[in-house]
Design brief:
Elements: H1 3-9, H2 18-38, H3 42-57, E1 62-69, E2 72-78, H4 83-94, E3 102-106, E4 118-120, E5 123-125, E6 130-135, E7 145-150, H5 158-173, H6 175-181, E8 184-189, E9 198-199, H7 203-218, E10 230-236, E11 243-249, H8 250-253, E12 263-270, H9 282-298, E13 305-313, E14 316-323, H10 327-339, E15 345-352
Parallel strand pairs: 2-3, 7-8
Antiparallel strand pairs: 1-2, 4-5, 6-7, 6-9, 10-11, 11-13, 12-14, 12-15, 13-14
Length: about 375
C-alpha cells in the first residue's frame, strides 16, 4: 500500500471547528504539497480529500490551488461570490496555522490588469477588448450601475460574453470587491453605448472613489424605531384564494437614509399550514416569533440592523432585515438556523439592495 493511501485511510476525527480542519490538514500537508508540486492527480489526491472535510465544517467552501513559486503552494479558499459565506471563508483562513511551504488566501485576489486575459468561446476578455461607463440614477444616487462594453459583442453570443466579463472582473477586481461594490452590471456592444467609453483598467480607481464617497456620506447613520409606524397589509393569492398578511415598518420605508443599510437579508420559514388556509397554527406561530426575537436580540438596531417587517401566508413566512454589513448577520443566521434545525425549516439570503427595492410593493 502506498504512503499516500495509508496516511489518508486512517480514521479521522470529525471536523466541527476551524481548528479541527487545520489539525487534519497539518497531518496531511506534506503529502498534499507533493501532489500539487508534481501536478499529478490533483483532483483525486487533493481536491477529493479536502472537499468532504470542508463540507463537514460547513457547506459553501470552494478552492483553487497551485504553486506560488518553486517552494510555496497557495491555497485560495473562496465563497464563489455567495455573500453569506464570505465571512466563514475569511475566518477559516484567519485561523490557519503557519505551515512552511503554504500560503492560505481568503477569496480570489485582485490581479494586475496586465495579467488578466480570459479566452472563452473563441473570444478574448482583456484591457484591449473591454471598456466601461457608469449610469447615474437621480432616484438612486448611491447606486453603482456599471455598463461594460465588449468590442466584439454579438447579440447571439450575449450569454457567453456576459459570463466572460464576470470572470474577467472577478479576476481583475478580486472576488470580494466584485461581489460587494457593483450594484448593477450590464454587458453590451459598442453600438449600444450611450456614453463615452472609459478604459477598463480605470474601473478599480472609479470604484474606490465611489466607495469612499459612500462611506463618508453615511458614516454613523442610524435609525431609532421606537416611535415608528407599522402598517398591516392583507392580500389574497389569486389562484388559491389564500390570504397573505404582512406587518411592515412604513416609517422605515420612507426613511431617506436607507442606503446607509445597504445589505438586505430575507429569512424564509416554510411551515405546514394547509389545514389553516396557509397560515401557521398557534404553536408554529409562537415558535417563529421566538426565533425572530432571538435574531433581533443578536442583531440590534443600535448596531445597524433594522427589522423592516414580515409577511406570512401560503405556508411561508418571510422576515426582512436591512443591515449595515453582511458579515455579522451571516454568522448569526447560520448559528440560529442550526439551533432551530429540527424545529423550523429555515433558509436565508443576504444581498446588496441599497434602496430596499425588495419592499417597493409596500410603498
Amino acid at each position: 500500500m502506498s504512503f499516500l493511501t495509508s496516511i489518508l485511510k486512517k480514521k479521522d476525527e470529525p471536523i466541527r471547528t476551524n481548528n479541527d480542519f487545520w489539525t487534519w490538514f497539518q497531518k496531511n500537508e506534506k503529502t498534499f504539497f507533493k501532489v500539487i508540486e508534481k501536478h499529478d492527480n490533483i483532483e483525486k489526491d487533493f481536491f477529493d480529500k479536502i472537499s468532504p472535510k470542508l463540507n463537514e465544517l460547513k457547506e459553501g467552501f470552494f478552492y483553487l490551488t497551485g504553486m506560488l513559486d518553486d517552494k510555496t503552494v497557495e491555497l485560495i479558499l473562496t465563497a464563489d461570490g455567495t455573500i453569506k459565506n464570505i465571512v466563514f471563508v475569511e475566518e477559516l483562513v484567519a485561523s490557519a496555522p503557519q505551515i512552511p511551504g503554504w500560503k492560505f488566501t481568503a477569496s480570489k485576489p485582485a490581479l494586475n490588469i496586465e495579467n488578466v486575459q480570459i479566452d472563452m468561446h473563441g473570444l478574448t476578455f482583456d484591457k484591449d477588448t473591454l471598456s466601461f461607463y457608469s449610469n447615474e440614477h437621480p432616484d438612486y444616487p448611491d447606486e453603482i450601475d456599471i455598463v461594460v462594453v465588449h468590442k466584439h459583442f454579438k447579440e447571439e453570443d450575449k450569454s457567453s460574453i456576459s459570463n466572460g466579463v464576470y470572470i474577467f472582473l472577478d479576476s481583475f477586481l478580486g472576488e470580494l470587491e466584485f461581489a460587494t461594490t457593483i450594484d448593477n452590471l450590464t454587458v453590451i456592444g459598442e453600438s449600444e453605448a450611450e456614453k463615452e467609453l472609459i478604459p477598463i483598467e480605470k474601473l478599480k480607481a472609479f470604484l474606490v472613489w465611489r466607495q469612499k464617497e459612500f462611506m463618508e456620506k453615511y458614516e454613523g447613520e442610524r435609525h431609532d424605531t421606537e416611535n415608528d409606524t407599522y402598517s398591516t397589509y392583507e392580500t389574497e393569492i389569486k389562484d388559491s384564494g389564500r390570504k397573505v398578511i404582512a406587518a411592515i415598518n412604513t416609517t422605515l420605508l420612507d426613511w431617506d437614509g436607507k442606503a446607509s443599510h445597504p445589505w438586505f437579508m430575507t429569512i424564509k420559514i416554510n411551515y405546514k399550514g394547509d389545514e389553516n388556509n396557509g397560515m401557521p397554527d398557534e404553536q408554529t406561530y409562537k415558535t417563529m416569533d421566538d426565533f425572530e426575537n432571538e435574531i433581533m436580540n443578536e442583531l440590534r438596531e443600535s448596531d445597524g440592523y433594522l427589522n423592516v417587517g414580515r409577511e406570512s401566508g401560503d405556508n411561508l413566512r418571510e422576515i426582512y432585515f436591512a443591515c449595515k454589513d453582511f458579515r455579522r448577520p451571516s454568522k448569526i443566521l447560520y448559528e440560529w438556523t442550526t439551533k432551530y434545525l429540527n424545529i423550523l425549516d429555515i433558509s436565508y439570503d443576504i444581498y446588496k439592495d441599497k434602496y430596499w427595492q425588495k419592499m417597493e410593493r409596500y410603498r
